[in-house]
Amino acid sequence: xxxxxxxxxxxxxxxxxxxxxxxxxxxxxxxxxxxxxxxxxxxxxxxxxxxxxxxxxxxxxxxxxxxxxxxxxxxxxxxxxxxxxxxxxxxxxxxxxxxxxxxxxxxxxxxxxxxxxxxxxxxxxxxxxxxxxxxxxxxxxxxxxxxxxxxxxxxxxxxxxxxxxxxxxxxxxxxxxxxxxxxxxxxxxxxxxxxxxxxxxxxxxxxxxxxxxxxxxxxxxxxxxxxxxxxxxxxxxxxxxxxxxxxxxxxxxxxxxxxxxxxxxxxxxxxxxxxxxxxxxxxxxxxxxxxxxxxxxxxxxxxxxxxx
Length: 308
What we know:
The chain is an alpha+beta fold. It is built from nine helices and eleven strands. It has a five-stranded antiparallel sheet with strand order 1-2-3-5-4. A two-stranded antiparallel ribbon has the order 6-7. Strands 8-11 form a two-stranded antiparallel sheet.
C-alpha cells in the first residue's frame, strides 16, 4: 500500500501521522507527504474502485459550486493486493457545533446553485449581445454523470426528465429488487405496488429544479473546523432538494439553528412532511439492504402510512 502511495503521489516523504478515521464501509488514515498532509481511505471490496470514483466525482462537483467546504479530492489508486485507495486533502475536523447555522445556509446555497445558473442563462438569453460569464453549466435533468454509492451499494444515476420517475425507478425500485432477492418479503412488495400508484399525488404542483445533492448527509458526514462547516463522504446526484433532509432527520446531529437557516433560504413547500417520509423510505431500505432486517419495521411502517 505505501509503495503504491509513494509512487502514485510522486512523493519521497510518506509518514503516518497517527490520525486515523473511517466508518462502517472504509478505513482511513493520514500521511505526511512532500505536498503536505493527505487523508487516505482504503477498501478491499471488489466494488471499491467504483465507490471511490463516485465519491471523487461527487466531491469535485460540490467543490466547483464554491458553496460549502469539502476535502479536495486528489486521486483514486488501485493497489496490487486487490484494494483501492482514495487520496484527498487532510482537514482537521471536529464535530459540528458552533457552525450548524452556517451549514444550513451553505447547504441551501449548494441546493440553489443550479437554479441560479438557470436564472443566469435566462437573463443572458434575454440580453442581446451581453453574454454574462456563468460559474458552470445548468443541469436540466435528474441524475449524475457517473455511478455514486450510498454506503457500498451503487445508485442508478441515469438521466431522467422527471423527478418522480427518477426517484421511483432509480432509487426505491433497485432497493426493493434487492430486498426481494435477499428475503422475498411479500408485504414489502405489496405495499410498494400500492405506493407506486400514490407517489405522484404527494407532489401536487411542486416545482422541482434539479439540485446538486450531497446524497448521504447524516450526522456522521458533517463536521467543522475554524473556518466553518465541512461535509464529506458524498453520494451526489441532481435531485429534489428536500431529499437531502431525509437522512439528516433520521439519526440526529443537526440542531434547530441548522433547519431554521436552511428553510430561511428554501422554505418548506406544501406536502413537505409526507415527502420527507417518502425520502426516508429510501434510506431505511438502503440500511435494510446493508445491515439486515433491523430496518424492516421502519421501511414497512412508512409505506403503510403513505398508502393510507
